[in-house]
Amino acid sequence: MKHRLALIGYGGMAGWHHSNIKEKIPQIEVVSAYDVREEALEKARQNGLKTYPSLQELLNDKSVDLVTIATPNDFHRSLSIACLNAGKHVICEKPVTLNARELEDVIAASKEAGRLFSIHQNRRWDRDFLTVKKVISDGLIGRPYFVESRVQGSRGAMHGWRGYKQNGGGMTLDWGVHLLDQALQLFPEKVVSVNAHLFSVFGSQVDDNIKLLLRFQSGTSVMLEMSTNCFIPLPRWHVSGTDGTMMIEDWSCKGRIVKLRPEGEMTWEDDIVYTEAGPTRTMAPRPKHTTAELPLPEVKADWTEYYKNIADVLDSGAELIVKPEQALRVMKVIDALFASQEAGQGLKCDI
Ligand code: NAD
Fold first, then answer.
1. Which of 17, 71, 93, 273 could form an S-S bond across to 75 if both were Cys, CB 3.0 to 4.6 Å?
2. How confident is the model over 49-75, as a mean pLDDT?
3. Over 203-257, what HEC string results?
4. How far does the centroid of ligand 1 lie from the alpha carbon of residue 11, in Å?
């Protein structure tokens, strides 16, 4: 039997959920929608969905067993709890809540109701991220120690409700949640310190241009940068490992690996070398025969894997991929990052 899904919030992202489930997930049927705006309800009806005049009517609809919440962030907590208490399985958009304490309330409600609760962390299936994950896990560049992950736009202020603190706006709670989740997937070990540099270039309410620094227990350092005011972007990923470097230029995943050739021994000149950088041995170009250039590995990447997993969890008891506890860890790191910004310095933590 197909699962019957209702969408709460029928705005930009809900459209993606609707069309992708319809096209690619035969086990789930999107049947209905609820939104506080009449235009959004009208659009849902035009797209063939039943709509409800109130949230309560959706909660009372026993034919719906699964709900996806895609409203502004400040409604996620209360809507998730209401749906779980009504016996629905719940998928919530990111950021699942505005802080870790709110998320603990939702996790408790899902345990009490015995219903599935997951967070739409679709960017775990981004091609660039899966490529980095494969390069690291296959040991292609040795042990990674500096990781830089960036998304850089130049369209200015955060759009719509994302510009308001009350709605859970700002870059940390928008793209930060994705990039932090990816970093915590790459390095499951503890985060031992954080340092946030949050700028509000276009207003006073929310951060819109940010750098987040994390140090992991093994010493690995991760820098995440998100901007809306950058006209000369740096690569999407730059990873330094003990045996080489990898770089991914952009979303199309142009990039390369340059690694040490085991047989290409490096020798040092006795005398100082005169280079474009002036007299220096350290920054003199490396002899070509000591390194090799490799293409990036091919990976399979499809966001709908997220919903395939949800259907498999519900139908055959598969393991849930995006777990609430993982989202809780992301929210605890975010709490620590906001505390670091408040303190104006890096902070130790144990997350
Ligand atoms: P949006 O403004 O386009 O849509 C939000 C919709 O929610 C609107 O139609 C609005 O009327 C409705 N709404 C507001 N309050 C409501 C309430 N209390 N009950 C019911 N409906 C309500 O926003 P969006 O860009 O679609 O973002 C929605 C969510 O999706 C956010 O949490 C955002 O972070 C997330 N998102 C995730 C991704 C991703 O890649 N995972 C991408 C974009 C947005």
1. 71
2. 98
3. CCCCCCEEEEEEEECCCCEEEEEEECCCCCCCCCEEEEECCEEEEECCCCCCEEE
4. 6
pLDDT at residue 1, rounded to an integer: 82
Distance 75 CA to ligand 1 centre (A): 9
Pocket probe mutation, ligand 1, options 34, 71, 78, 98, max atoms within 8 Å of Cβ: 71
Q: How far apart are CA 35 and CA 47, in angstroms?
A: 14
Q: Is 30 exposed, middle or buried (0-12, 13-18, 19+ CB in 10 A)?
A: buried
* Ligand 1 centroid, distance to 277 Cα (angstroms): 51
pLDDT tens, 202-212? 988 999 999 99
139-to-97, 235, 260 alpha-carbon distances in Å? 35, 21, 13
162 in contact with ligand 1, CB cutoff 6 A:
no
35 pocket-lining for ligand 1 (C-beta < 6 Å)? yes
Digit-coded pLDDT (tens) for 114-164: 999 999 999 999 999 999 999 999 999 999 999 999 999 999 999 999 999
pTM above 0.90, yes or no: yes
Helix (H, G, I), strand (E, B) or coil at 153: coil
- Which residue, judged by its Cα, is nearest atom 40 of ligand 1? 122
In short, whether 163's Cβ falls inside 6 Å of ligand 1 is: no
Q: What DSSP string runs through 85-97?
A: HTT-EEEEPSSSS
Q: What is the dihedral of CA 9, 19, 95, 60, to 10 degrees?
A: 40
Q: What is the pLDDT of residue 307?
A: 97
d(CA 320, CA 305): 12
CA of 13 to the centre of ligand 1 (A): 6
11 pocket-lining for ligand 1 (C-beta < 6 Å)? yes
Q: Residue 14 CA: which ligand 1 atom is closest?
A: 26
CA of 168 to the centre of ligand 1 (A): 11
pLDDT of residue 281: 84
> How far apart are alpha carbons 336 and 78 in whole angstroms?
23
Tell me what pLDDT residue 202 has. Answer: 96
* Contact indicator for 179, 213 with CB cutoff of 8 Å: no
Give the pLDDT score at 40. 98
